[in-house]
Write a structure and sequence with these properties.
three-stranded mixed β-sheet; alpha+beta; elongated; 19% strand; 5 helices
Length: 113
């Protein structure tokens, strides 16, 4: 055996490993999906954003695989007109500040009507 034979696997070994890996299930932590039913936290955030901003569209997606710790939120509102993105995000954050304390991650997109 040479030094390179130890470090570099043979083509046969690579094919065999590839076939084995195809049979291994993907861990749930690597799968991204949203639940069909909204959690209480999602419903509260949706209500606060819809009422507080008069939003025409509020989309809340749980990106944590159903755990409710990471969200992706899109808010479209007429109140954002003439405001910078930072000002828009501050408005949203002020409305859902209690919910933000309980989650680990938030991806926020805002758009003026």
């Amino acid at each position: 055996l040479s030094f390179w034979n130890v470090l570099l696997p043979s083509p046969n070994m690579l094919r065999h490993t590839s076939r084995l890996l195809q049979r291994v299930p993907v861990p749930l932590s690597r799968v991204s999906f949203s639940t069909s039913s909204s959690s209480d936290r999602e419903k509260v955030m949706h209500a606060k954003l819809t009422q507080g901003l008069g939003a025409s569209q509020v989309d809340i997606v749980d990106t944590s695989g159903g755990c409710g710790v990471m969200y992706q939120i899109l808010v479209v509102s007429g109140q954002f007109k003439g405001k910078s993105v930072l000002e828009q995000h501050k408005l949203v954050n002020s409305l859902i500040k209690d919910e933000i304390k309980e989650i680990h991650g938030l991806s926020l997109r805002t758009r003026a009507e």
